[in-house]
Amino acid sequence: KAVAGRRKPATGLQPEPEPTEAPLSPAPDRDVHQQGTGGPAHGVRLQLLLDLHLSPFFARASFYDFAPSPFQCVCCNFLVPDDQRKRTYAVVYPNKFEANLPIAPFCCLTSEMCMVDRTFLYYYDKPPSRVGMFCGIFPCTICGPPVIYSYRPKICCVDVSDCFGQKIMSAPCNCFGLKICLCFGNPCYTQCSLPLLTGVKDPAPFLSAFKYAVDAYKGAKNLDDSQMAIFEDVEDNIFDLGRAKKVKEHQEAQVKMARK
What we know:
By secondary structure, this protein is α+β, with helices and mostly antiparallel strands. Helices cover about 15% and strands about 25% of the residues. It has helices at about 45-50, 80-85, 160-165, 205-220, 250-260; strands at about 60, 60-65, 90, 95-100, 120-125, 135, 140, 145-155, 160, 165-170, 180, 185, 195-200, 230-235, 245. The strands form four sheets. Strands 2, 8, 9, 10, 13, 14 and 15 form a seven-stranded mixed beta sheet that branches. Strand 11 (about 180) and strand 12 (about 185) form a beta hairpin. Helix 4 (about 205-220) crosses helix 5 (about 250-260). About 35% of the residues are buried. Residues about 15-40 and about 250-260 have low confidence and may be disordered.
């Protein structure tokens, strides 16, 4: 006999399995003021980051205080208003890379209403994650696959990243791994690259998650390996005679760490 006020379980039905957590979906109640958003200011504009809590993402970039100012120097921190930092973000999604690098026309005197958003959206089946087309006819892979790499500035073995920040760059091809001075120097593709992000702090976890996302997308869409970007880390150090190394293979646990 059923107890009053308690529903009698239906017979012949299997118990529902316990829900499992999606391996790469963000927690909806996570505070936006967290490490990985560029410190306490970068990317905390809730209206802009609302999509981060609705769609699964892999990683967010961290920035120095002088980002996204065009004056990439620690001496220019005071020129960047807090509202500009709040609107700055870069996010790796399962199928796209999205960033907002707003412009403050009057530097630290610029109000939020006067700021101009510069939003970039790149899907992984198009450049820079995939090779471009030659005359719109066939994939241009004659000089190798495209490259997305982090660039660490050094002066005589001294790392000056804290002074000038690091960059995430994009090159249309890897030039078969050739060096500028034949057997030493930076890779040749550094001479034909463009910046995706500047003023980045500790780009390794973000770039590794970027590689993980592109590789997963490539496998899901059955894209040709020769057409997809490779990911490397480049140091500008004359005593190393130039150095470029592959970004390490990423695992799911590392992706989660990049999002914390």
